[in-house]
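ERR on first pass: missing label on line 2. Operator R.T. fixed the label and resubmitted. Corrected input:
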Amino acid sequence: MQKKFIALAIAGVLAAPVAASADTANVTVYGKAHMSIDHVDTGNSMWDVRSRASRLGFKGTEDLGDGLKAVYQMEFGVEMADRNNDINDGDRGSLSQRNTFIGLAGDWGTFVVGRHDTPFKISTGKLDLFGDEAADYNDTLGFIDARADNAVAYISPSMSGLTLAAAMVPAGTSTVFGGANANADGLAEAISVAAMYGNGPLYAALAYETYDQDVITSTSATPDLDMWRFGIGYSMDAFKVGFVYENEDVGADFDIYQLSAAYKFGNNVVKGMYGETDGNALGTIGKGDSWGIGLDHHFSKRTKVYAQYVEIDPDAAGVSNTDTFSVGMVHSF
Amino acid sequence: MQKKFIALAIAGVLAAPVAASADTANVTVYGKAHMSIDHVDTGNSMWDVRSRASRLGFKGTEDLGDGLKAVYQMEFGVEMADRNNDINDGDRGSLSQRNTFIGLAGDWGTFVVGRHDTPFKISTGKLDLFGDEAADYNDTLGFIDARADNAVAYISPSMSGLTLAAAMVPAGTSTVFGGANANADGLAEAISVAAMYGNGPLYAALAYETYDQDVITSTSATPDLDMWRFGIGYSMDAFKVGFVYENEDVGADFDIYQLSAAYKFGNNVVKGMYGETDGNALGTIGKGDSWGIGLDHHFSKRTKVYAQYVEIDPDAAGVSNTDTFSVGMVHSF
Amino acid sequence: MQKKFIALAIAGVLAAPVAASADTANVTVYGKAHMSIDHVDTGNSMWDVRSRASRLGFKGTEDLGDGLKAVYQMEFGVEMADRNNDINDGDRGSLSQRNTFIGLAGDWGTFVVGRHDTPFKISTGKLDLFGDEAADYNDTLGFIDARADNAVAYISPSMSGLTLAAAMVPAGTSTVFGGANANADGLAEAISVAAMYGNGPLYAALAYETYDQDVITSTSATPDLDMWRFGIGYSMDAFKVGFVYENEDVGADFDIYQLSAAYKFGNNVVKGMYGETDGNALGTIGKGDSWGIGLDHHFSKRTKVYAQYVEIDPDAAGVSNTDTFSVGMVHSF
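pass 2 clean. output:
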C-alpha cells in the first residue's frame, strides 16, 4: 500500500520523493532530432531553418504478471528552430505534447488513455515516404492526420497479419481538433477506426474517422466531419510503390490521392511522389496538385541526411506555386 | 576550478558541453502517470478524460564527504489530458513546475532552496487517502495546500519519531499564492512550520502557515492569512482511520475537517471519507460537505487501478451537487 | 530503410514507438542547478530567490564510421524560481530553450544547425569569472551575448592551440535578436566569427558579430549592428588575470571593458572584477561602471557555494546604484 500512517521520512520526501523510482531502468529516454535548411519560393524567396517534428520522450513498461503489462509514455515535441516573430524569448513554452498515455497491454492487445495519433492517422503513416519532411503528404496535399487529446484507444495484436485499432474521444471540456466544443458532452464525440494488413511484400489499410461537429465548430447546425482512407503498398526487392486515397465529407466533399515510389541502392534511397487534392475540410490547403522528389543517404539505422525538391501547385488563378528545396538531417536516439 | 584560461576545446563545447556530466548516473529520471475517465454530473453531465498530477522528474545527490550531500531535483507537471478550450495547439506550455530545488543534506537535516510543497502541506498529505484522485481533500473540502515558489526550507532528521520542518519565502518580485505582491519585500513574507510524529501504528501532525497579506492582495489594509492544521492516523492490521482538521483565519474564519478510513484485503483497498467545510479563505469552495468511497486494486507497488464515487454537496440553496464517478490508473516510474 | 511496407507491429507503435531507441545509452541526461538568495538595494531593498541559468539537457553522439560522428543536443533552461507576478500558475511554460542542435563532427571540425551560443559569445565566455552569477558581465556592464535561433555553425578542431568558429543565421520567418524581421530573407542575416588561441597559461580571443538591421528593427533605414570583442587571460600558479574589451557600432558607438582577477587557495577562490561601459546598443544598461568581489568554495568538481557583492554605478544623475549581495549554490549533473 502506498499510503501508510507510519512515520514519514520527510527528509527522504525532499531528497528522494518516490522510493520506487530509484531504479532508473524504469525509464527509456528516446527522441528524434530533425532539422532542415530550406529555400522557399512563393513568388518571394527566403532561406529558413526548420525543425521537423523533433521530439524527446520518456517511456517504459512494467511486467504485472499473468501476461499483463503496464505501459506509459510522455513524448514532447521540441521546436529546435524559432518559427515565430516574438521577441527573443528563448522560445518559452516551445515544448508541445505528442503521444502521451498510460495503459495496459496483454495477449489481447493494448489499451491506452491519453493523447495519441488516431488509428486513421496511423493506418497509412508508413506509406508517406516524405513523412515530416518538406514533401510530407499532410502539408502538400492536405491529408488530415490528428493526434487526439483525451483519447481512449485499443489496438489488437497482429492476427495472421491483420491488426485492428479503434479510438474514441470523450470530449469533456477539452478540444479535439481545433475550435470550442461547448456542445460536446458524450463519451465518443470523435471515433477513429482502422484495419491494417501486412503480409510479406504487401501492406494494405482501410480507415474511418468521424467528428461530431460540436467538437469542431461549437454549433450543431453544420454536418459532422466524416473521413475514410485507403492505402496500399507493395515492395519488390529494392523497389516499392504506394498509393493513398482519402475522402472527406463535411457537407462539402473532398478527394485526395497520392502515388509514391522509392528505389534503394546501397545506403541511398531515391523517392518521389505525385498527388492531387480538392483541398480539405479544414481549409489548410486549396485545390491543386503537388509533386516531390528526394534523395536520402542513410549513414546508419539512426542517422540520415537528405535533399529534396517539392512543388505545391494550386489550381486557383493568380496563386503562386510554393517551391521548396530542402536539405535535412534526421537522428533518432 | 571550473574556469581555466587554457585552451578551450570548443568543439567539445559544442558536442559535449559539460564534461562532468558524461556520467549519466548523476541523474535519476522518475515520474508518475495518472489518468482517469470521469463521468461528472453537476445538473448537466459529461464524460471527461483527466490527467491527475502526472509528473516527470530528474533528481540526484552527490556525496561531498564528511557526511554532507548535495541534493537537487527538477520535477515537472505533465498535463497528459487537454483541459482548456484553446485551438488544437498540442498544449504548448503544458509543462508546469513541481518541487524543484537545490540544497545540502547531512546528519543535521536537509536544507533546500527552490519550489517546494510547504511543511503545512506535507504534514497531513499522507492522511488524504484520495490524494490527486477525484475525491482529493483539496478539491472536495477546500483544504489549502501550497507549493511555494522561492522557498527556503529546512527539515530535521527523525528524532525518535519526531520530524520538524520549516520554510520561509522571501517574496522578492515573485508571487507566492496568487495575486501581486508589490508591497512584499521581507525575507519571510510567508512562513510554514510543521511537527510530525510517527511511531508504529500512530501518526500525528501539527502545522501552521501564515502569509503576509501583501503577498496575496498587494494591499496592506486586509489581515494576514493564518492557517493551522492537525492530523492523526492510526492503523490496526488491515484497517486504518484518519482525521484532519484545518482552521483558516483571514478576518473571516473557516473550519474544515475530514474523517477517513481504509480496509486492505489482498491487493485491494476499500476506502471512504466524509468531511464538512465552512468554505475556505481562497473562495475555491463553498460551505457544505463531501463524501467519497473507492476501491483500489494494486497490480504492483508501482501500478494500481481504481474506481471511486464522490459527492460534493454545497449548503447553498439552488446550487447543484457535483457527483463524480471516476475510473483511473496510476503508474509510478 | 526506415520505411517498410511490411506489416506494422502497431501495438509496438503504441508501446514502444522507436525500436532503435530501446538502448537508453544513446542519451546522456545532464544539467545544472544554480540558485541564489539575493539582497538587492536600488534605493529600496528587497530579498529575492533567483534561479541563475539552471538547465536540463539531453545529448548524445553516434559513431557513423570513417571518423564521422552524428551529434545532437536538446538543452532547456529551467526557471527554478518564479520571477513574474502572474497568478500562481506553477510557471507553465517556464522551460526555455538553450543550445539545441543537430550536426556532424569529424577530424575537420564540427558542423551544427540549431539554436546555439554564437562564436562571439563563446570567445570570451571563460573570461567572465562571474558567469551566470550576480556580477555576470552581461548584467553588470552590458556585454552583448546572443544565443542565436536558427544558426548554421562551424567550429574547427584545435590547430596548435588555435580554434576558429563561424556561424550564420538564415533569418527566414524567425527572429534572431528581438524584434521582427519582415525584411530579412537572406541566407546570412547575422554573422558571427571568432578566433581563439590557448597555449599553456595564455588564452586570447578575437571575435566579430554583425546583424543586418532588418533582423533587429524590421526597417532598413537604420544602420547594421556591428560588434567586435577582444579578450586575453593569463594564469600564474594560483593567480590569474583577464581582460575583455567590446566595441558596438549601431550608428552610435559603445565601448565596454572589464578587468578581472582570481586567486585560488585550497578549495576556495577569491575573485574580483572592475569595468566601465558607455551603455550598449540594446539599451539594456546605461553609461557607468561596475565592480564585484566574491568568494567561491568548491565542495567538489560538480558543487560549489559562493558569496559575492556587486555594485552597478550609473553615471546618470539621480539614478541609484544597484547593490547586490548574493549567496548561491551551483551543482552540475
